[in-house]
């Protein structure tokens, strides 16, 4: 199992998830969770067992990481409705996002000749780009 420490840390420090809930779900001492949340103990000092339990819980689909694509989705859907896009478009990706475990889409172009100097863009199906953004934008 690969442990994504960024994801594990985000779950552990998400105060919207009650410590007693994580204790019951994962079998991790509530005091361990609260000490990390209250900065009484550093994340780097967690045992591998604790990190592995949280990672397994994430891998089992109990926590979803999202990216706010709301504005970009709205823009692309409007462009599609207006007929401005073809079957393919050119997407630009940002820096690697550790929580998403990929580089998120940050912009798009209709045609290759529109791509700004310095931008690296990949040609993808318009429907695929929209589907990726909608999936990553979802919070379960």
Protein model, in words:
It is a single chain. The chain is an alpha+beta fold. The protein has two domains: 5-62; 70-137, no CATH class. The chain is 46% helix and 11% strand. A three-stranded antiparallel sheet has the order 2-1-3. Helix 1 packs across helix 4 and helix 5 (70-81) runs antiparallel to helix 6 (126-137). It is elongated.
Shape descriptor reads elongated
Spatially, the strands of the biggest sheet line up as 2-1-3
What oligomeric state do the depicted chains represent?
single chain
How would you sum up the major sheet? 3 strands, antiparallel
**Derived structural class:** alpha+beta
Number of H- or I-type helical stretches: 6
| Uncertain regions spanning at least 5 consecutive residues | none
Q: What is Rg?
A: 19 Å
How many domains make up the coordinates?
Answer: 2
Number of DSSP strand runs: 3
Outline of the structure:
This protein folds into 2 domains: 5-62; 70-137, no CATH class. Helix content is 46%, strand content 11%.
Keywords:
single chain; 140 residues; alpha+beta; 2 domains; three-stranded antiparallel beta sheet; 11% strand; elongated
Secondary structure layout plus pairing:
Elements: H1 5-13, H2 19-26, H3 30-37, H4 48-62, H5 70-81, E1 88-93, E2 105-109, E3 121-125, H6 126-137
